[in-house]
Amino acid sequence: MALRAALRNKCVLSGLLSQRSSSCSSHGRVCASPVLAAQRRNNSTSPKIDVEFDQSTGVAVMRLQSPPVNSLSLEFLTELCIGVEKLEMDKSCRGLIITSSQPKVFSAGLDITEMYGKSPERCGEFWRAVQEMWLKLYGSNMITIAAINGSSPAGGCLMSLTCDYRIMADNPRYSIGLNETQLGIVAPFWFMDTMKNTLGHRTTEVALQLGLLYNPSEALKIGLVDQLVPEDQILTTAKQTMTKWLAIPDHARAITKSMMRKPTIDKLASNRDADIKHFVNFITKDSIQKSLGMYMEMLKKRRG
Amino acid sequence: MALRAALRNKCVLSGLLSQRSSSCSSHGRVCASPVLAAQRRNNSTSPKIDVEFDQSTGVAVMRLQSPPVNSLSLEFLTELCIGVEKLEMDKSCRGLIITSSQPKVFSAGLDITEMYGKSPERCGEFWRAVQEMWLKLYGSNMITIAAINGSSPAGGCLMSLTCDYRIMADNPRYSIGLNETQLGIVAPFWFMDTMKNTLGHRTTEVALQLGLLYNPSEALKIGLVDQLVPEDQILTTAKQTMTKWLAIPDHARAITKSMMRKPTIDKLASNRDADIKHFVNFITKDSIQKSLGMYMEMLKKRRG
Amino acid sequence: MALRAALRNKCVLSGLLSQRSSSCSSHGRVCASPVLAAQRRNNSTSPKIDVEFDQSTGVAVMRLQSPPVNSLSLEFLTELCIGVEKLEMDKSCRGLIITSSQPKVFSAGLDITEMYGKSPERCGEFWRAVQEMWLKLYGSNMITIAAINGSSPAGGCLMSLTCDYRIMADNPRYSIGLNETQLGIVAPFWFMDTMKNTLGHRTTEVALQLGLLYNPSEALKIGLVDQLVPEDQILTTAKQTMTKWLAIPDHARAITKSMMRKPTIDKLASNRDADIKHFVNFITKDSIQKSLGMYMEMLKKRRG
Question: Which residues cross the membrane (chains A, B, C) (predicted)?
Answer without folding.
Answer: none
